[in-house]
Amino acid sequence: MKILYSTIAIVSLSIMAEICPTCGLPKDLCVCSEIDREQQRIRIRLETRKFGRPTTIVDGINDKNTNLASTAQKLKGVCACGGTAKNGQILLQGDHREKVREYLIKLGYPEENIELQ
């Protein structure tokens, strides 16, 4: 009888789901991150820095769920270049605008919200 009671308690605890404070849906059905991604305007531009070196700058990624430094690390691996993340921007050495755009689309950012300059 004691085993049956503990099994029922475990099942009742697993049925209760955590609720997202923003949208009010259960955590497994939460759509807040997709809504945030759809509302972002991401700019990818090319600047020439000191000594005429081209630098790709990505700004506008303000997602709470993603870490800017880890996104920069992945982009550096995709583009096979050096770079950094600082002041809300990702700086990549060289002209990698198309590669960055394709990778961000693959991550789930809408294509119409990514602007190339």
List keywords for this structure.
117 residues; single chain; alpha+beta; 5 strands; five-stranded mixed beta sheet; Translation Initiation Factor Eif1; 4 helices
Write structural notes for this entry.
- With 117 residues, the chain is an alpha+beta fold.
- The protein is built from four helices and five strands; from the N terminus they run ααββαββαβ.
- It has helices spanning 2-15, 32-39, 68-79, 97-107, and strands at residues 42-48, 54-59, 83-86, 89-93, 114-116.
- The longest helix has 14 residues, at 2-15.
- The N and C termini lie far apart (70 Å).
Write the layout of secondary structure elements.
Elements: H1 2-15, H2 32-39, E1 42-48, E2 54-59, H3 68-79, E3 83-86, E4 89-93, H4 97-107, E5 114-116
Parallel strand pairs: 1-5
Antiparallel strand pairs: 1-2, 2-4, 3-4
Please indicate the percent range of residues in DSSP E strands (runs of 2 or more).
Answer: 15-25%
List unreliable stretches of 5+ residues.
Answer: none
Please identify the structural class as seen in this structure.
alpha+beta
The secondary-structure element order is HHEEHEEHE
Radius of gyration: 21 Å
- For the secondary structure, the number of strands is 5
Main β sheet profile: 5 strands, mixed
Quick check: average pLDDT? 82
CATH topology of the largest domain: Translation Initiation Factor Eif1
Number of domains: 2
- Give the helix proportion (percent range): 25-40%
Oligomer: single chain
Q: Please name the CATH architecture of the largest domain.
A: 2-Layer Sandwich
